[in-house]
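Need tokens for this chain, all 759 residues.
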Amino acid sequence: MLYFGLRARRAARGTAQSNARLAALLSSSPALAMVVRTDGRIELPERLADWFGLSPVPRYLADLHSDMSGLTAEDLALLSDDIVGAQKAGRPFSRPLSVQGSTRSLMVHGTRAPRDLQAPGGVVLWVFDATDSGAEIARLVEENAAATTAFDALTGLIEAAPLPMWYRGPDLRLAMVNSAYVAAVEGSNAADVVRRGLELVEGSGRGGPLANAVRARDNDRPQMQAMPATIRGTRRMLQVHDVPLATGGVAGFAVDIEDLEQARGGMRRFGAAQRAMLDRLSAGVVQFGSDRTLIFCNQPFRRLFAMRKEWLSDRPEFDRVLERMREANRLPEVRDFPGWKAERRDWFRATEGAIEENWHLPGGVHLRVVAQPLPDGGLLLIFEDRTEQVQLASARDTLLRVRTATFDNLYEALGVFAADGRLQIWNNKFRALWGLDEEFLSKHPRVDALAQAAADKLANPTHAVMIGDLVRAATVDREQRAGRVDFADGRHFEFAAVPLPDGNGLFTMLDISDSRRIERALRDRNEALEAADAVKTAFVANMSYELRTPLTSISGFAEMLREGYAGTLSEEAGGYVAAILESVDRLGMLVDDVLDLTQNDGQTTKLDRSEVDLVRVARTAAAAATAAMQRKGVDFGVEILPSTGLVMGDGDRLHQIIAHLLKHALAGTAAGGRVLLHTDGTAAIARILVSDNGSGMGAAAVARAFDRFAEPDACRDGERALGLDLPLAKQFVEAHGGTIKLESEPGQGMLITVEMPRR
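Here are the structure tokens for all 759 residues:
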């Protein structure tokens, strides 16, 4: 008994220790146990009752609910259903519970009670205080909802992005692509593209589509590379970006930079063309970059500022360029050069746009400087040499002053009218002529108002509208008009309206009163002279007719004496009679010539036209002149070519033409001289040439050789009597429609050329 008692006591002690340890574990456990028996009785520790907010400790399941504490009626009903299910079906359950009047959250895990618990058909409930974990769960739920929303938004953004985007797993195989990627590779859908592994960029190896992703994954840095790709049958240049992710995968997107590359190429070509164009400008151009170093200058700039190309190739700074300009004496003279240079340095930061200055350099050089700040922070300078323009402007100003002084002091009245009919410029003569006030003219009146104000000055005021018509003709119709007008005071003016190159019209008036008086006097004198000439011509004609009667009597009586009607004459008397007959013949010929000149005065000589053999006429005229040539001892040459042919004309007048020319040549040729008659012709004309080697004629004599009443001292040596041969020859030649020309020099003889038309 003692042995069994000691062993039981040791066992009891061990059991007590084990129970104490288990009780300590239970008291420190985050979960408390509650047993629910089949009859509804419950066993729970006091601590768990405190969790439910119940006092005293409830004995039945229904006592877990009260009006102000414990579980809510809904939670208790749900918990009861779960307990019933666990009792009957052995189905474990979990349920969150809320305690009335408390912020405590409880989590219940229930299962059928084991046999050793000595609660047949009962259920063990483990109750956890989930207040802290519930808050954490709520927070996590909120974060999960926010992350889900953000993920959905990001997924939608990626899907709607216009550029291809994708995601690669750690093995760098495609895991996700967006719609733009699918469209770029011409796939059916995203799943099909991922399954087939369709790459956006063709190729393999170091330059392939995975090389950039491998570098991004291995270096854990984003990578970017420009790669060509074929999209929808078009070759495009893409800028591919691969970004490593914390999951080990790589995200990527591609930007189409084909248009950008073309734009860049176009900009480069445009820049090169612009620089080539600037290099051909006459103005100097220099460009500085954002770092204020020289990046471009054209040839005129280098010439203008005497800068070597080698020095400029080192890209000097703005300040150094200004200093070099100063060394070359190509800057304005200033006292504070550092301050002046600092002000020009501010051009880089100017915001009001282009800055313009005029530089006056030593030596009279004028430069127009334009500084244009560039958007990239640089500066463009343009240097235009305006020295010649300044000089021309100065010369123009001088010319304008001279023109104004000349304009105001002209004897003519001048007025310049614009295209709208307003008076723009006038001189003092114009104002004084019309008697207009300076105040009236300074308002630049229209031509109609001006004409109305000047109407009283005219002899006929209605003629004032003529001024407006003239101005409109010059400014609108661009026609030049002229005329004359009479003033009321008896003066006469000649006017003209002239269109000017600038669209204006010039109106001029010149006082011709004296000219009109002189003109009238000259006209009266001319009429008197014409009347006197007519009287003279009639007198000569009458005298010629009157002379023929005594000449006929003298010739008849001389013929009777020569024939012996008055007895036989001595040899000496016969010579006298022969001399009388010869003089009578000569005088008769002169009378005939005078009659020919006077009878057709002012009219065309009447011709008896027929077909004439000019060869026969020329031979006859030459034969008639041979005797006179021989008597004077002149060598007479005759060359009548068959080409002389036939002409339509008056045979007698043609004979007289040749006879008068030969007579004129004989009169001017001394004994021992030579006279030549030459005729030839073409299909259109017949030509007669008479020449001699006599004393010739001076220029004054040649100019008046064909005058009917030329003074003897104007002819050759004064030997041709009245000098009627050439005037008569010219009169007959022109009657036939021909031309006659005389060529002669003193001491060189004479040549007369006559051309007669065939028809």
